[in-house]
Write a structure and sequence with these properties.
Layout lengths: L4 E7 L5 E7 L2 E8 L8 E4 L1 E10 L1 E2 L7 H12 L3 E9 L3 H17 L1 H6 L3 E4 L23 H10 L4 E6 L6 H10 L3 E4 L6 H9 L4 E2 L16 H7 L4 E5 L7 H10 L5 E4 L2 E3 L8 E3 L3 E5 L5 E3 L12 H12 L2 H7 L2 H7 L13 E5 L8 E7 L2 E2 L15
Parallel strand pairs: 1-4, 5-7, 5-14, 7-8, 8-9, 9-10, 10-11, 11-12, 12-13
Antiparallel strand pairs: 1-2, 2-3, 4-18, 5-6, 15-16, 16-17, 18-19, 19-20
Length: about 400
């Protein structure tokens, strides 16, 4: 989009109308205008997802890593209003994890379009809990303590791209690993853990600042108190990612977490996984192995019933939170400015910021927001029609 473009709509982050001018890929001006009317779309920042294992045919954890998987994720996610995301590599052998990280780095290096959408890499594992429940569907045979040498191999494989590493603080060496990662500009998240209060406090003191999909990757039954969920909810230095897909957290739990973390920081993630055609009739997922679409529409492990990631995207999460809180603006912030603050890459949704813009339709009661137009760095995203494919009867 070389010439200046003027976009108008209802302000998704406030009230009334908003006029935005895009110039040379950036926001040239933002001005309030009279309410543009009920027929106008909502306008706000593009959605930012800090945890995406895969989406539709694109897979960050493919058995045969390929940059095209990451490009496919960027294209299909844009159809749901996601303008920036972190491809997320999960627990596997050291060689497999490095190969997947390298494929993401190659995708960013070789494609301007993909590099605009990929904000970096999230590595979830392999230093997670080995216990059933907290481990989720991460493969037990590849759970291992953190190794500075392995962490360095990730940094070497994708210079400047490693943004978040999720680990469980119970492992020996977690404090040292946290200090190492933070020193290299990587955010450390607590997740898939059975750690004690003291172990969580130790990694937070060492620089951990996030919780990964809080409330999931946990035991089915916990002591009333203390437990690792209360500890993370109460810790003001931990901002929490949550999955608002209608499956991972019941409404009451999600509403409680939003309230508890209001002053500490909370952001939406999808935890989306690849759903190639082979999964529609039952198949093997790169996240969780043997899975099936359950009667509730969720993707679940065939033997344990554990959730194997999500088949929803942030467009569903925004609508879910809007319903729970009664505020579209609050929901949009949790999927835009809140994750932008985690990335801390510069100005966001202000004059001079990169023009990642989402125009969408939504009304109270809608199950998702529906993008009309998506701009990434001022350029129209690829066609959104094919990206909004129905999978597992969930859309």
């Amino acid at each position: 989009m070389t010439a200046a473009a003027v976009l108008r709509g209802r302000d998704a982050l406030g009230s009334g109308g908003l006029e935005l001018v895009v110039e040379h890929g950036r926001i040239g001006s933002l001005a309030r205008i009279a309410d543009p009317g009920d027929g106008a779309p909502w306008i706000g920042p593009g959605l930012i997802d800090l945890q995406v294992n895969g989406h539709l045919e694109g897979d960050a954890n493919a058995a045969e890593p390929d940059p095209e998987h990451i490009a496919a994720m960027a294209r299909s996610l844009a159809g749901h209003g996601v303008t920036r995301f972190l491809p997320t590599v999960i627990t596997a052998s050291p060689a497999e994890m490095v190969a997947r990280i390298r494929a993401i780095a190659e995708a960013v290096r070789d494609s301007t379009t993909t590099s605009r959408a990929v904000a970096g890499i999230h590595v979830e594992g392999p230093s997670l809990s080995d216990q059933d429940g907290p481990r989720g569907v991460h493969p037990l045979e590849h759970i291992r303590p953190p190794s500075i040498a392995e962490l360095q191999s990730w940094l070497d494989a994708a210079p400047g791209l490693l943004r978040i590493v999720t680990l469980s603080p119970h492992h020996p060496g977690s404090v040292e690993a946290t200090r190492f990662l933070v020193a290299h500009g990587v955010r450390v998240a607590v997740g898939h853990t059975h750690a004690s209060d003291a172990e969580i406090a130790a990694v937070v003191d060492a620089g951990a600042t996030l919780s990964t999909h809080l409330g999931n990757g946990a035991h089915a039954v916990l002591p009333r108190h203390p437990n690792y969920l209360w500890t993370q909810l109460a810790e003001p230095r931990l901002a929490a990612g949550v999955i608002a897909d209608g499956h991972h957290l019941p409404d009451a739990t999600l509403a409680t977490m939003i309230a508890a973390k209001r002053d500490h920081g909370l952001f939406l993630v999808s935890d989306a996984v690849a759903t190639p055609a082979a999964l529609l009739d039952g198949g093997v997922s790169t996240v969780g192995g043997g899975v099936h679409f359950a009667d509730d529409g969720a993707l679940r492990h065939v033997s344990t019933g554990f959730l194997a990631g999500s088949v929803q995207t942030l467009d569903v999460g925004v609508a879910t939170v809007a319903r729970l809180t009664g505020s579209l603006a609050a929901a949009v912030r949790l999927a835009t400015s809140a994750p932008a603050a985690v990335l801390d890459d510069g100005p966001h949704w202000t004059v001079g910021a990169r023009a990642d813009v989402l125009l969408f339709d939504w009304a109270p009661g809608d199950r998702s927001i529906t993008p009309r137009e998506v701009l990434i760095a001022g350029e129209p995203a690829s066609d959104t029609t094919d990206a909004r494919t129905t999978v597992g009867g969930t859309r």
